[in-house]
Structures are given as structure tokens and as C-alpha cells.
């Protein structure tokens, strides 16, 4: 059983959704919390709430992780406060939606920087200390989309497939070093994510909650899992791809995710 009390937890994307709930639950377990997101006002409000409610230390650190070099600057600021991160929740991320050629290349690159590059660099910054202490937790928020392609969210799904593969590798590397590494894979979740991508047209609707996702994350760490999927139906959906060809899965997913506003594309082969 991991002892959370007195540990320092860093949560990215902490201003709302899954990140905010993660920060609150870690504070409730007695962790001091470093909150990272772009919104200074939201972070400071949350920091004050958590500090007064749970009697822990909080640190609001506004930062744009899409910008190269931000993670190194963040690590330097944390070091100057004489803090050592014991728990890292790499939650920050966003998606894009639409036909690939119609999505801004700049926007796609920002997404890759945030979903992939900053997550890898944050892990580089804080994993060595955990290894030295032979104790620590890293949770990388992936997605149900990590298990298959998602037409009209092609680059997003690819970034999350990277996160899953990367995390499972680190899990194996660190399993005897006292550091627990988990890929947390939510399905569709009621957060601001779908406001950012500009659609709520998802097969089966948007049913998960940040609370259920975070609960799954703690359960995955407790059980020593390399990955965990939020929700039984989501789990079986991910496993179903093992019994179907990748081509068939991609074509069927395209039919399910094609926006109603898009014209029919004719017979698919």
C-alpha cells in the first residue's frame, strides 16, 4: 500500500476535469500539491481551496507546456522551492477533430508537443529522484483511443498510442526500482475536452466522469497495473480489437465517428 501522506504530487492540466479531481483527491490523502496549467486564476483558486480544506501546502505554477523548454523551467522553479516530486500525474493534453488535411498543422504540432513531448520531458525531469528514493508514482493519462485508430481524430489517437507504449515500457523498466508507472486510459469523459475539439458527436455518447477516471487511476496503482481502462464496457471495447483486423477496425470506426455534416464517401473497400 502506497503511503500518500506528506508526499509531493505534481499534477498537470490541474485547472479542470480529470486534473482538478486528481489534485483534490491527492490533497485529501495528505499530499502537498503542485498545480500546473495555463490558467493562473483557476490554479490559484484551487490552490487556496485545497490548502484551506486539507491543511496541505499547495503551489500554483501557471505554465504553457506546449512551448519547448517549459518543462525544464518548471523543474528549475520546483527545485528552487526545495521541493522533490514523489508523484507525477501527466494529465495535460488536448485533441483535434476533423479531416486531417483540414486541421491546422500548427494546432496539430501544439498537440504533439503537449501530449507527447512535454509528457516525456516531465518524466525525464522527475523520474530519477523517484528511482533514487526507490519510491514514487507516475501516472500518464492516455485514452481508450490508444488501443485503436480513430478516424477524424487521427493525430490525437496516435499521440495516446505513444503514451500507452511509452508508459508500459517504463513500467517494465522500473517495476523492481520502487517506482509505480501507470497508463490511465479513460473512455469518453464529461470534461472540457470536447469543448476544445469542437464536437460532442461521439459513438455511444459521453458517459464517463472525472471522478470515475481518477478512482480507476488509484485502483491501478494499488494493483500494480501497467495500464487501466476506466469502465467495464470500455475495457471490452479495447480488447475487441485483438480479434479483428486493424483494417476492419479502422473502417468500422470511421463509419461510426464520421460527423453527420460530412458527405458520404461512397463504398468503402
Automatic annotation (TrEMBL):
InterPro entries: NAD(P)-bd_dom_sf (IPR036291), SDR_fam (IPR002347). Gene3D superfamilies: NAD(P)-binding Rossmann-like Domain. Keywords: Oxidoreductase. One of its GO terms (molecular function) is oxidoreductase activity. Belongs to the short-chain dehydrogenases/reductases (SDR) family. PANTHER family: NADP-DEPENDENT 3-HYDROXY ACID DEHYDROGENASE YDFG, VERY-LONG-CHAIN 3-OXOOACYL-COA REDUCTASE. This is SDR family oxidoreductase. It comes from Peribacillus psychrosaccharolyticus (Bacillus psychrosaccharolyticus).
Amino acid at each position: 500500500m502506497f503511503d500518500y501522506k506528506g508526499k509531493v504530487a505534481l499534477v498537470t492540466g490541474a485547472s479542470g476535469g480529470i486534473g482538478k479531481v486528481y489534485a483534490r483527491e491527492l490533497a485529501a490523502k495528505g499530499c502537498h500539491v503542485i498545480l500546473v496549467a495555463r490558467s493562473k486564476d483557476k490554479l490559484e483558486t484551487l490552490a487556496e481551496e485545497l490548502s484551506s480544506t486539507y491543511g496541505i501546502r499547495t503551489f500554483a505554477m501557471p505554465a504553457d507546456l506546449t512551448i519547448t523548454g517549459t518543462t525544464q523551467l518548471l523543474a528549475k522553479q520546483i527545485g528552487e522551492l526545495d521541493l522533490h516530486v514523489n508523484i507525477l500525474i501527466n494529465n495535460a493534453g488536448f485533441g483535434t477533430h476533423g479531416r486531417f488535411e483540414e486541421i491546422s498543422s500548427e494546432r496539430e504540432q501544439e498537440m504533439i508537443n503537449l501530449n507527447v513531448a512535454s509528457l516525456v520531458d516531465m518524466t525525464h525531469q522527475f523520474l530519477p529522484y523517484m528511482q533514487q528514493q526507490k519510491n514514487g508514482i507516475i501516472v500518464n493519462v492516455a485514452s481508450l483511443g490508444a488501443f485503436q485508430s480513430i478516424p477524424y481524430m487521427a493525430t490525437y489517437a496516435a499521440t495516446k498510442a505513444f503514451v500507452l507504449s511509452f508508459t508500459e515500457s517504463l513500467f517494465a523498466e522500473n517495476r523492481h526500482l520502487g517506482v509505480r508507472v501507470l497508463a490511465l486510459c479513460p473512455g469518453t469523459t464529461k470534461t472540457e475536452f470536447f469543448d476544445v475539439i469542437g464536437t460532442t458527436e461521439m459513438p455511444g455518447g459521453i458517459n464517463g466522469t472525472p471522478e470515475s477516471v481518477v478512482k480507476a487511476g488509484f485502483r491501478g496503482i494499488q494493483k500494480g497495473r501497467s495500464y487501466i481502462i476506466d469502465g467495464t464496457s470500455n475495457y471490452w471495447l479495447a480488447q475487441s480489437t485483438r480479434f479483428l483486423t486493424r483494417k476492419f477496425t479502422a473502417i468500422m470506426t470511421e463509419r461510426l465517428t464520421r460527423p453527420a455534416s460530412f458527405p458520404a464517401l461512397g463504398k468503402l473497400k
